[in-house]
Amino acid sequence: MSPSDTRSDPPAGSTPGDDVAKPSRPAARQGELALFAPPAATDEMLVPARMVNEWTYCPRLAVLEWGRGEWAGNADTAAGRRAHKATETGAAPALPEPEALPDDRTLKTRRLLLASERLGLTAELDVIEADDGCVVPVDIKTGKRPHVAEGAYLPERVQVCVQALLLREAGYVCDEGALWFADSRERVRVELTDELIATALRAASDLRLTVASGRLPPPLDHSPKCVRCSLLPICLPDEVNWFRKGAIARTPPPAATPALPLYVQTPGARVTKKDFALVVQVEGEADRAVPLDEVSELVLAGPVSLTTPAVHELLRRDVPVAWMSSGFWYLGSTGPQGPRSAAVRTAQYAFAADEARRLVFARELVAAKIRNSRTILRRNWRGEDGERGPLLDRLALLADRTARAETAAALLGIEGEAAALYFRALPKLFTEGVAALPAFAFERRNRRPPADPVNACLSLLYAVLTRTFASAISVAGLDPWKGVYHVERPGRPALALDLIEPFRPVLADSAVLMALNNGELAPDDFVSAAGGCNLKPKARRALIAAYERRLDQETTHPAFGYQVSMRRLIQIQARLFARFVSGEIPRYPHYVPR
Amino acid sequence: MARRSNAEHAYVVAYDISDPKRWRRVFKTMKGYGRWLQLSVFHCRLDGGRRAEMASMLEDLIDRDTDHVIILDLGPAEDVELAVESLGKSFQPIERRAVVI
């Protein structure tokens, strides 16, 4: 091993081309110039050692996390945190200056932050051991030691190498690093070869340049690495590759967490935090405690109060709070949602400014909506057989006609015509028992306020569906208020209204049908006042529960072919829309089941 | 080492804590992870991440020499039919469904 005086670093202050001539740098392969990113300017972010590891593992992962502010945890990241706990407790003596380093005893310290603007690197060191005038950075890894010739995989070795380079930069003598594998309790020595140093510096430099260019590297192709990657639900490697190669996607990406929304809509209810749970207090009822981890979103409708400690805890956990009126009009959300980056939103605004692209998208959107309403009619038809065929044909014709619509206004006409046909046929989907009840007579769709029970149910679930999409859209980094097909108006989540169009029949209408046909709603579950009709509290709960049950049902994704719950499908579609506006995939695959 | 799966599993967590102060803390913590079944016994439905978090929380709370916590993995929450005989009160597996209040 070479001692510390033959350091291989990118040259300070020199032009990037100079460093090829430096003797200490390992010779670049023929025909390839080793061009490094210039030293970091003062306001530039330094590349963390962990990100150099991730760039080496998967460039897309590093750019998503470091450049786009995305993060998601899974069982492996939780296990990693647990393994690191050992470094967070106990004494952490200060690391003495290099000259004052004791040479006669072993010193151990932990949790040290190092940075170098010249290298453009920073690192958080788990454990540093000093012995005999030399220091050794030790990085803690969960899992077992891999049985490979180098002792560990390249990404981990590169990470330790960056830590060692930073120690050298701070003036210490550092000849080697180490990795500690917590599960098998084994230590692996990492030799700082010139080759490893060059790889580490190149990775850091490539990452910095890629993030600066704003480019998102393509996903890995059917890589075994993806399966356990915690960013799988965000990155969607197979889904993106489907557009590039037509390859069949493997399994659907897991949901970010298995948590579910918690709805509180009983007037006068109070939501408080107690220890690790949210407690909902309703007068005259026993308190209900829901563990905080099991709440993906807190939905508050109407006069419901939420305490400040509960808000703080929800903010800390990144759980959004959706505020809705008692009529379930979406007012907005509280909370940090989505990635800490505006990259996707910027692309969304650029997309929304492009009239031509908008129209192409809107055509497909309306066609998908008409096809889906046709599917609902086809599947649930209980009327006379003779009427069914011509109606389905007319809807199919209208869906085809969208492709020739020249303007958004023409598209609106086609959409309206199809909606009239569809809603006129809706009572044909009711069971005989429901159809016989005069309370559930349905002639046409009306709203503001809905005049009859069926319209009241539809309005409620459309509002809840809008909220479901508004959350999924924000989590994907998009702006729910900027639409493509719907005109923006203050207080109108236009993008959510756009994207729910194909889902209205499959999620909301079918949940209403399910609740009515199963007898979950009875005529006395509704109150009519001042020309409007409303659901009683118990009925509202039943209908929302039916909708949430519908979200848990599985479906086959029409493009990717795998089985996926509707709940996850919505998250996948929101992510795909974000990829689509960013130009990473050529078109947005609408959900059009057969 | 506990299995590391992102799928949801059903668990029974039982503990013996010698000190009342620590016992109370463990009890409060466990309420954030599962349903209280009996004295010092909780029934949980957790994915791999929450399972690891729960274990590391408990690890911090207990005294390794005098206390004891066991986490029994009953298998995948969705697929496994729990063969439970419950005498006296009834036992219900935790269903995953949105709460509407």
From TrEMBL, chain A:
GO MF, one example: iron-sulfur cluster binding
Gene responsible for this protein: cas4-cas1
Lineage, broadest ranks: Bacteria, Pseudomonadati, Pseudomonadota, Alphaproteobacteria, Hyphomicrobiales
Annotated DUF83 domain residues: 51-236
Function: CRISPR (clustered regularly interspaced short palindromic repeat), is an adaptive immune system that provides protection against mobile genetic elements (viruses, transposable elements and conjugative plasmids). CRISPR clusters contain spacers, sequences complementary to antecedent mobile elements, and target invading nucleic acids. CRISPR clusters are transcribed and processed into CRISPR RNA (crRNA). Acts as a dsDNA endonuclease. Involved in the integration of spacer DNA into the CRISPR cassette.
Name of protein: CRISPR-associated endonuclease Cas1
Keyword set, alphabetical order: Antiviral defense, DNA-binding, Endonuclease, Exonuclease, Hydrolase, Iron, Iron-sulfur, Magnesium, Manganese, Metal-binding, Nuclease
Chaperone in keyword set: no
Amino-acid positions noted as binding Mn(2+) in the UniProt annotation, renumbered to this chain: E415, H486, E501
TrEMBL record, chain B:
Subunit-structure text: Homodimer, forms a heterotetramer with a Cas1 homodimer.
Function: CRISPR (clustered regularly interspaced short palindromic repeat), is an adaptive immune system that provides protection against mobile genetic elements (viruses, transposable elements and conjugative plasmids). CRISPR clusters contain sequences complementary to antecedent mobile elements and target invading nucleic acids. CRISPR clusters are transcribed and processed into CRISPR RNA (crRNA). Functions as a ssRNA-specific endoribonuclease. Involved in the integration of spacer DNA into the CRISPR cassette.
Keywords, comma-separated and alphabetical: Antiviral defense, Endonuclease, Hydrolase, Magnesium, Metal-binding, Nuclease
Any one GO biological process: defense response to virus
Keyword Secreted: no
Organism ancestry: Bacteria, Pseudomonadati, Pseudomonadota, Alphaproteobacteria, Hyphomicrobiales
Family that this chain belongs to: Belongs to the CRISPR-associated endoribonuclease Cas2 protein family.
Positions bound to Mg(2+): D16
The protein's name in its UniProt record: CRISPR-associated endoribonuclease Cas2
Co-factor requirement: Mg(2+)
EC number: 3.1.-.-
A GO molecular function held by the record: metal ion binding
